[in-house]
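Troubleshooting log. The previous structure file for this entry was overwritten by mistake, so regenerating from the original sequence record. Sequence copied from the archived sheet and checked twice against the printout by T.R.
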Amino acid sequence: MTEQHAPRPLVAREVHEGWTLSVAQAAAPQAADLVGVPATVPGSVHTDLLAAGLIPDPYLDDNEGLLGWIGRCDWEYRTTLGWTAEEAAAHERHDLVFDGLDTVAEVRLNGQVLGSTANMHRTYRFDVSGALRVGDNDLVVRFASPVRHADRQSLALGYRPQVNKHPFNAIRKMACSFGWDWGLDTATSGIWRPVRLESWSVARLSVVRVEASVEDGALDGGPGQTLAPGRVRVQVEVERTASGTDALRLGVQVAGAQTVVEVTQGETSATVDVVVPAVALWWPQGYGDQPLHDVEATLACGTYRLDRAHRRVGFRTVRLEMEPDEHGTSFRFVVNGRPVFVRGANWIPDDAFPHRVTRERYAARIAQAQTANINLLRVWGGGIYEADDFYDLCDERGILTWQDFLFACAAYAEEEPLRGEVEAEVRDNVVRLAHHASLVLWNGSNENIWGYQDWGWEKRLDGRTWGLGYYTELLPQLLAELDPARDYTPSSPWSGSLDVYPNDPAHGSMHSWELWNRQDYPHYRDVVPRFLAEFGWQGPPTWSTLTRAISDDPLTPESPGMLVHQKAMQGNDKLVDGLVAHLPLPDDMEDWHWAMSLNQATAVRVAVEHLRSWSPVCMGSVVWQLNDCWPVTSWSAVDGDGHAKPLLYALKHAYADRLVTIQPRDDQPGMPLAVAVVNDSGEAWTGDLVIRRLRFDGVELQGVKVPVEVGARATATVPVPPDVAATDTPTGEVLVATLGAERATWFFAEPRDSALETPGLVVEPVRTATGARVRVTTDVLVQDLALLADKVAPDAVVDDMLVTLLPGESVTFEVTCPGEIDLAALADPRVLRHANQLVTEVTR
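Regenerated output below.
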């Protein structure tokens, strides 16, 4: 090979400029205006029309219904791709690569059909070497209506039960595009992930699989181990041009070690193992550091580099233990030999138009998860395989990830063409994500095995396939090939066997929705699951988000915009039913908003503290849900504008490394209350546990001091003596347990029945360089004090919330705000809220 004919490295050129959007059918409203609309790629039809001022914001008021026609139309994206003779001659092969097309599309270049697509979750590559011409090239992507396609496919594949007004299970598109019980119906189309033209010669890396592992037997399971011998295995597939028959070299470099192998003439695959004698272990948040190492794989022909791939890996071991024991079947994650109690939350797409979620937005949301002491995010199966940025950030911050395959709350046909699409998307995404240290579990589906058994599917299916073959055969087979070291469950909930009821609390993972739907949150304490993978309580978005998104006048819980932004079946009725046993129902809208926000936070806190008090029998709590995709009343802790609801602060307290909680214990005759001391830190926790029964005015009636010593990652339970726990005045007394800086309270009566008083709060706000510092002192017991800073400035953030103060106590809130903030407004009783207001003012 001469220098003149030396192959050049692969080059990639983004194809993101000059796109226009046009409706492809005249029946659309304003059809004449919907031609040649400037388009953004990556993007979507809705966001392009919104940017052009042709539609109102679908997130506001009742605009969702006005825009339903968009999903029923066909659309066309078009751009001109310039091409020079020099570019053509520089390489042998030119591929047009789409990282994501949403969803049913035909791609044409200069009138030539390159191919058709029918899966939002795949990457598509088209060889355009023969279709490109010097000069301008006309590139067109025409999208068929996702609504009409799904309807047609539901007939072609045969009816399968699902939980939506659209047959989302008949199309490989983000299920919640068609709406959910927290999501709006957009059913958009578009080029939603990057597009590029890749030019290459001789050969390229078509598949790169990277696995980092710790040598077998290298971990002692002790808390002090930080180093271990590691190994990186890189398996590649190589695509060659017709002339690319020469022997190739594949080199892999990681952590200062390097290995090179030859890919002999005609071979199209290779494996490289690199041994690293001593690497720092990667740990989840709260267990250690998160060292990451760059892996560089380089494909060369002689001395000429052809292609390269980069990944970042962390070295750790992880396994899911599902083993029989005296309580049933466990469900616990073990990282580097150490069991991890999962303090988790479910993750949904952070925007109904997920192309708008930037790395900065992922980072903000994951930072909020860290604020709430969350150590695992479960990526739910009705959404997407998230962008690389999401998993990169979780790797960096020690947030474990559990990835559902994209099957949710529905039966799915196992026949073609759906089966082939499923296999292709799984291959794409497992290879893309498997190297991430944070990824600890693949899960086959959300609630589908449970749904088949409990939701009447079997009768309605009448013998049709429903997805079981995916969950028990296809997916495990693909994982055995592509990611054999990582654990897999066929569904969530999952008991460990098809012979055991899938949502049995004693076996494996469980989902709990009877409390929200039909019962009440104190009943969370009735069951001790081995791992609770879904549970939650609804609440409205923050006040600033609510009033930005809904312009109803008057704004009421049942005003038109409010009902559009409440997607749950009988959602408002369930909000009221879940409130009135605990707090009176307000008639004032701001009081209603605060009451529902507080009740959501309280309900979830009750559940989480119960679950943690039973560790290690229970080894996980995954709250539904961390985030929202638009402004809506939902189960989220962070609303659709990215603002933290009171629930996030409840999680911060309930998920703290060290927790003191008072719990009922029916298994202790004569001692119905106990203090659970939960130590999920790496150090032993010792001290005097002080348990006192106080009057609301602060006078101590009974007390006891108990020395305790709780080992690292352990829980101790201390019965409350009967004379301390007994009360003749349940409406005016509180039980307080304190260990060091941690405190728990137990109210013998619900707030609505308690003798809570109107406090005379002394509020002292002081301006700071980043916002304000607000010191609040009370003269009487104040329950769940909160500073709703967003009501003063939408971008104001407070550091804590839901603090219960005894008479004479103070708390200081730190408020950060990028702009000027009104200090006086921070003391307004509509901003500085507490449970006492809902009792003393609403009941007057």
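The CA atoms of residues 181 and 568 lie 5 Å apart. Archived copy saved in two places this time.
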